[in-house]
Amino acid sequence: MMDQFARTRLLYGADAMDVLASSRVAVFGIGGVGGYVVEGLARSGIGALDLIDDDKVCLTNINRQIIATKKTIGKYKVDVAKERVLDISPRCDVRTYKTFYLPGTQDQFDFTEYDYIVDAIDTVTGKLTIIENAKKAGVPVISSMGAGNKTDASAFEVADIYETSICPLAKVMRRECRKRGIESLKVVYSKEVPVRPIEDMSISCRQNCVCPPGTERKCTDRRDIPGSTAFVPSVAGLIIAGEIVNDLTHRRQDVLSD
Predict the structure, then answer these.
(1) pLDDT tens-digit profile of 211-224?
(2) 132 belongs to a structural domain
(3) Is 30 exposed, middle or buried (0-12, 13-18, 19+ CB in 10 A)?
(4) Per the confidence metrics, is the pTM higher than 0.70?
(5) Which is it for the CA torsion 251, 242, 34, 44, positive or negative?
């Protein structure tokens, strides 16, 4: 049957496309990385998506987030992402949660419902909570390491957390995963040494906050405001989407061959 996924079906076949259509993926964090994860999954025929993020689109998101335009400023990211997904794949079952994922909000989610989980959030505590709950539920999880302050999109690699190097966030995550007895974790990370952002208060959110009204976690509350580009977070997000599609379809093939 001819549809919007016909070109993908030419590579994966009908059975694999059925697997993708019957899979539910949770994406925690719909920002520079997570937004492109959602985009890649929607265009690959994933049948159900849970989108989790409490943030609203901000002017400063436009340089890197696929859901951010002048028209979407002030709207919840999950609402904008849902509308975009349904424009691409109207049959996709999209659930949205305006939630900042932390130990205090984890009870809103049943991880056993998911076929794959994406950690694309910034906070270490939240990332670890997602990973621990995914491991307990026996559901595959992939985690995004730092994409801020990077300019080389070709430096990304897929690896186990204990095989990473250079990335400051990965260093912290290695230590914390080891403490918690997490034996393995698939991550996307960059070996590029982070660039130090220019200290220019005339373009800094510290003195020029443009967060939409009602934003609970403003940039002015952050310890550090990273620089970003259009091409680095997007590459990380699309790599993650590709890993999920390939893992889900290969896992199905492995089951059939056993």
Answers:
(1) 777 777 666 666 67
(2) yes
(3) buried
(4) yes
(5) negative
**Gyration radius of the chain's alpha carbons:** 18
CATH number assigned to the domain comprising residue 45 = 3.40.50.720
Taking the C-alpha atoms of residue 248 and residue 243, their distance in angstroms, rounded to an integer, is 8
Q: Are 36 and 241 in contact (CB under 8 A)?
A: yes
Return d(Cα 39, Cα 41) in angstroms, integer. 6
Give per-residue pLDDT as tens, 170-214.
Answer: 999 999 999 999 999 999 999 999 998 887 666 666 666 777 777
Parallel, antiparallel, or unpaired for β 24-28 and 116-119? parallel
Number of domains in the chain: 1
Domain of residue 193, residue span? 6-257
Is 1 part of any domain? no
Alpha-carbon distance of 215 to 56, in angstroms, equals 7
